[in-house]
Amino acid sequence: MEKLLSEFTVGETGTVRTVSGEGRLRRRLFDMGVTPGAKITLRKKAPLGDPLEVNLRGYELTLRKTEAACVRMEVNA
Fold it and tell me: Is the CB of residue 29 less than 8 Å from the CB of residue 1?
């Protein structure tokens, strides 16, 4: 099943399928290691849902909800 990273619930894990977005935003996500094939686990969500804290490639990364909405994930069962 596919869904956006911004739609994940806490504790959910998935694999990056595609990264959309324009120019600088897409480049920034790639530079932070959000690339196709990377495994991501949503660790925390702020009370109002923004920002999100994820575990990626062995480190913690904080993303805005708008950034996470650019990442299409394959949910791991």
Answer: no
Those residues with Cβ within 8 angstroms of residue 29's Cβ, 6 or more apart along the chain or in another chain: 19, 21, 67, 70, 71
Written as one letter, the residue type at 41 is T
Q: List pLDDT tens digits, range 39-71.
A: 999 999 998 888 999 999 999 999 999 999 999
Nearest Cα to 53, choosing from 1, 8, 3? 8
The answer to whether the beta carbons of residues 58 and 24 sit under 8 Å apart is: no
Strands 71-75, 13-19: pairing kind: antiparallel
Q: What percent of the chain has pLDDT over 90?
A: 87
